[in-house]
Here is the input.
Amino acid sequence: MTAPLLANSTLAAAKASEPWNSHDTRLMVVTVLGIALIVLLITVVKMHPFLALMLGSAFVGFAAGVPSAKIITNFENGVGATLQEVGLLIALGAMLGKLLADSGGADQIIDKLLSKTPPKLVPWAMSLVAVIIGLPMFFEIGLVLLLPVIVLVSQRSKLKLMRVAIPALAGLSALHGLIPPHPGPLIAIAALHAQLGTTLALGLLVAIPTVVICGPLLSIPITRWVPVDPPAVAGGVDTTKAKTQSDDVKRPPTFLVTLLTILFPVMLMLGKALADIIWDTPKNPPQIRVFFDFIGEPLVALTLGVLLAMVTFGYAVGFTGNRISSRIGASVGPIAAVLLIVGAGGGFKQTLIGAGVGDTVAKFANGANISVLVLGYLIAVALRLATGSATVATITAAGIVAPLATDLTSTHAALLALAIGCGSLFLSHVNDAGFWLVKELFGLTIGQTFKSWSVMETAVSVVGFSFVMGLSTVL
Here is the structure.
């Protein structure tokens, strides 16, 4: 894994050293106009986001001078790559969520959470749950697993949706951008030759207070800005009922069984991360690491989680095979539109990257004469805004500042990796598939998504970077 990442970082640094030209200026203007066009089509013309993203991608491609055949290829590759990474996971998460809800498992968790937690502390409890689940898990997987719980807790506690959702989103997002084994931190660690253990320890020091500020505390004003109630249907789960448990459940799962079933894929992914650290021999790994690497892959872990749920949330509660199958089938229908929109968001992102927007931003930042931590953060921010991809932002920013990191101590190399991770989370908007995932799953408008999700992501980025800079002055 390390060699390809370093090669990408070296290539990014080489392109960033090229001089600025008129084509670069044109690309930046086209990018801004393309994003504005998508927002206009959706909010004013009321066009479906999937079609708006396709038209926006076509506009950017033609206006940037990309060959017509390449425009189509870039968009298709972006859709394919996004759905390859996220689409199957969303579908599996929806299946698990449907079984969790219909079996009465979601009721068990929510009743236990609400009975033990005063209403004022519910947002804090949601942050803690998100941090535990998000430690080894990608953001998208954590969101689809937590979605039924977020929506149903909001409904049962009589709290507005954002008061419960923002703490959970902040926990998932901060860990995704700052804590190994998530891909962003691992990319930065490899490119900057930082130490994994040091980065992990400092990442936790940064992530915990960041989640507190950008989760339970920030959810208070965001709830006033976006005072929405939970959606009627979330991830295939009907949230309008007082209880989600199906009428044909004979014996609901216990709280312990429910918790262990939900955490099962989390534990598999955590096992993979630990195995990679304990047996750090990628060229000739022992068979035990190969085993843990296989079952800990997100796709495999979630598939095994669904199979376990078919037993604990299916046969064990009295469902027949036909009823389990019908419930799994029913879970996929409501997320079809979500998959299309998320995929199109990935297509738009790849259109920007294929047009060279990432390289243009890197050129602009390459000549800056500022602190290496600030430089790494600002480059990642610019690339995140331009391409919508945290991974692209991390790879390119790490490649640009890597030559400046050779004289840094191991502590400051780790802080530089964290600074880049913070920058890669800045202001998620219409060119980020995550923006559309949150919008569709929570039933928000574009404006509401900007005022909630985008504001929270920006806060996580800025607050996290502030803590990184604070640590750099004392370590």
Residues 1-6 have pLDDT under 50 and may be disordered. Residues 2-474 form one domain.
